[in-house]
């Protein structure tokens, strides 16, 4: 039988009506469905924290946040890791770093992945890189080759979401929160041209909104 190490959101997942959850007024007409409610994101993130701590042993972790889309996931995952660290006999020292990548325009990946920032990239501790979503895999592959030039002891990639898409390079992160259908998702810091980061739930953007916020 098949053991999966992440939650799978099926292609025919109906999601939830927007009216059943709290969604900002200014986005009411832009979204189709709530596909991953905030509470479910948090519950899954709590478990990822436990799995990561279990696997990292006593290594010092440099948690690298891939901005901007990864900021919510980063903050919430680190809160769960901190909570494990302060409530058990074993604990893992943790420092943080931030890097910014940009590759998207409208709902399409451009072939050009820009990387900005990151001050501790050359430090030799184990790194855990935290990202919002992997689609083609290009962003993470670019980042990983950049990190490998600094010879870190180990690098693990955690991505909240991985998209099932024929555009994927085949790249898989070490830890995955949810595998999701091939749709454009927003919320929980995932954006469409910088909008929708201020939405708690992960939702499917409708076509009308893609036009409305197009650049
Ligand atoms: P990749 O390089 O194709 O794997 O794309 C990864 C990056 O594209 C992510 O870090 C996001 O910034 C962006 N991205 C890909 N799919 C989505 C989506 O459905 N919603 C919002 N951003 C996305
Ligand atoms: Mg983006």
From TrEMBL:
Catalytic activities: GMP + diphosphate = guanine + 5-phospho-alpha-D-ribose 1-diphosphate; IMP + diphosphate = hypoxanthine + 5-phospho-alpha-D-ribose 1-diphosphate
Record key words, sorted: Cytoplasm, Glycosyltransferase, Magnesium, Metal-binding, Nucleotide-binding, Purine salvage, Transferase
Cofactor (UniProt): Mg(2+)
GO biological process, one term: IMP salvage
Predominant location: cytoplasm
The protein's annotated pathway: Purine metabolism; IMP biosynthesis via salvage pathway; IMP from hypoxanthine: step 1/1
Cleavable signal peptide: none
Gene3D superfamilies in the cross-refs: 3.40.50.2020
Domain Phosphoribosyltransferase: 40-192
MF terms (GO), sorted A to Z: guanine phosphoribosyltransferase activity; hypoxanthine phosphoribosyltransferase activity; magnesium ion binding; nucleotide binding
Stored SUPFAM superfamilies: PRTase-like (SSF53271)
Keyword DNA repair: no
Enzyme Commission numbers on file: 2.4.2.8
InterPro entries tied to this protein: HGPRT, Hxn_phspho_trans, PRTase-like, PRTase_dom
Top-level taxon in the UniProt lineage: Eukaryota
PANTHER family, A to Z: HYPOXANTHINE PHOSPHORIBOSYLTRANSFERASE, HYPOXANTHINE-GUANINE PHOSPHORIBOSYLTRANSFERASE
Function, as annotated: Converts guanine to guanosine monophosphate, and hypoxanthine to inosine monophosphate. Transfers the 5-phosphoribosyl group from 5-phosphoribosylpyrophosphate onto the purine. Plays a central role in the generation of purine nucleotides through the purine salvage pathway.
Family: Belongs to the purine/pyrimidine phosphoribosyltransferase family.
Protein name, UniProt field: Hypoxanthine phosphoribosyltransferase
Organism for this UniProt entry: Maylandia zebra
């Amino acid at each position: 039988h098949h053991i999966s190490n992440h939650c799978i959101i099926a292609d025919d997942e109906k999601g939830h009506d927007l009216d059943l959850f709290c969604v900002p007024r200014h986005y009411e007409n832009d979204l189709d469905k709530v596909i991953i409610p905030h509470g479910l994101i948090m519950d899954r993130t709590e478990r990822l924290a436990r799995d990561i701590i279990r696997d990292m042993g006593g290594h010092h972790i440099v948690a690298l946040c891939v901005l901007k889309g990864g900021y919510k996931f980063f903050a919430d995952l680190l809160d769960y890791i901190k909570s494990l660290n302060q409530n058990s006999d074993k604990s893992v020292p943790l420092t943080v770093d931030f890097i910014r990548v940009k590759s998207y325009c409208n709902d399409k990946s451009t072939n050009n992945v820009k990387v900005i920032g990151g001050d501790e990239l050359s430090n030799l501790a184990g790194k855990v890189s935290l990202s919002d979503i992997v689609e083609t895999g290009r962003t993470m592959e670019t980042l990983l080759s950049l990190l490998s030039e600094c010879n870190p002891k180990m690098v693990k990639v955690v991505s909240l979401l991985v998209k099932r898409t024929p555009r994927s390079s085949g790249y898989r992160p070490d830890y995955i929160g949810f595998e999701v259908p091939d749709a454009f998702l927003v919320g929980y810091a995932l954006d469409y041209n910088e909008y929708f980061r201020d939405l708690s739930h992960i939702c499917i953007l409708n076509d009308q909104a893609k036009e409305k916020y197009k650049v």
